[in-house]
Amino acid sequence: MFEAKIGGVMPVTAIVGGQWGDEGKGKVVDMLAQEADYVVRFSGGDNAGHTVINPMGEFKLHIIPSGVFYPGVKCIIGNGVVINPDVFIRERNELISRGVDVKNVFISDRAHLVLPYHILLDGLEEEARGNKSLGTTRRGIGPAFVDKYARMGIRVGDLLLPEYLHERLEYVLECKNQILTKVYDAAPISLDEIYETCLKWGKELAPNIKETTHIIEEAISQDKKIIMEGAQGALLDPDFGTYPYGTSSSPLAAGGCLGIGIGPASVSATLGVFKAYSTRVGGGPMPTELLDKTGDIIRDEAHEYGTTTGRPRRIGWFDAVAGRFSCQINGMTTAIMTRLDIMDILPAISICTAYELNGKIIKYFPANSGELAKCKPVYEEMPGWLCSTKEVRCYDDLPLAAKNYICRIEELIGCQMSAVCIGPSREQTIYK
């Protein structure tokens, strides 16, 4: 089914967000994982949230891959992820309590840890920015990635090496406590306390910690079916997104190669996930944002509130300029549209086909967030269909206006939709 309906995507398929995150990647991974052998999360941390609804119920995952609901699927948290062990343990225990088998969940020993001082610094840094805050989730993700690249990080594998761990923590805390006490006038972090916490984490996580690059290499050599599960969306990428209003690791398909430890030639397909409209959480420019009754209607109909933060998501019309750019930088071979059913109630629907910047029409996505903030969307209006699509199970049975809307977006972004989702459950998916 996987190959026939989505289009021949083995052995490795990258599933990435085409917008600002929250596109429904969790549902897509859960839906496709039934035909996979491995699901590997490659970026981000518990600042990402995937809501999955399946016959076992509704689940909100923050760190464990969305393939966990299939007992035969091995789920790996790759080296490109930063992990708060408390969040992982809590999420794992919640899954166990609800009857989910987690024996095949593994963590790369190369993944970096989110430690208490990262969370503390995240909040202090956001407060210091005042009205120029970035809108982070304050979960320590950014500071953990900063330490990774500053060569001050503590890795998951370090938890199993007590002497080395103590040596590393002693050095890092000397630096962090200088910042906490002298820059932010905050209390220092106790070396003994954090060391004891890390030792407890090590005992708790030891069965899950693996050298995962070897596992993945062996799986590829055996032609196993692997899904690379992305977090966030392309427009939050630190290089190509709305910098500095973005995330701290690459959510792009190429980032997936780094985040699990494979070469780019191993990736046979990239599947982009797009909502039928746009949403965003946090600060930064969003050209098609709707600050009116229509935006409120879409938000309420779709229950658009962050899985991780609970914050109301910003709502906008579909931005095809951004969507085309996302397809380009990800090398998308196919796409899936989610939340089409939310548009059922709208008499007319707009698509952004270009921007107006300083009196000129442009069709590219500006690199500078200041310029993007000045862009005015150029809209093309299409008629709505004003009838429910939630029970439709065949593409041909969709209202003509809905099919026209899908086709127009395909033309504008330069990528074909292989499926359309008209609800949160697995069966509410229409394959083209």
UniProtKB/TrEMBL annotation:
Q: What organism is this sequence from?
A: Dehalococcoides mccartyi
What name does this protein carry? Adenylosuccinate synthetase
Q: Which family does it belong to?
A: Belongs to the adenylosuccinate synthetase family.
Query: Which sites bind GTP?
Result: 21-27, 49-51, 313, 339-341, 421-423
Question: Which pathway is this protein assigned to?
Answer: Purine metabolism; AMP biosynthesis via de novo pathway; AMP from IMP: step 1/2
Q: Does the keyword Iron-sulfur apply?
A: no
Q: Per UniProt, where does IMP bind?
A: D22, E23, G24, K25, N47, A48, G49, H50, T137, R151, Q232, T247, R311
GO cellular component terms listed in the entry, alphabetical order: cytoplasm
What Pfam families does UniProt report for this protein, alphabetically? Answer: Adenylsucc_synt
Cofactor binding, per record: Binds 1 Mg(2+) ion per subunit.
Question: Quick one: which residues bind Mg(2+)?
Answer: D22, G49
PANTHER family for the chain: ADENYLOSUCCINATE SYNTHETASE
Assembly with partners or alone = Homodimer.
Q: What's the Enzyme Commission number for this chain?
A: 6.3.4.4
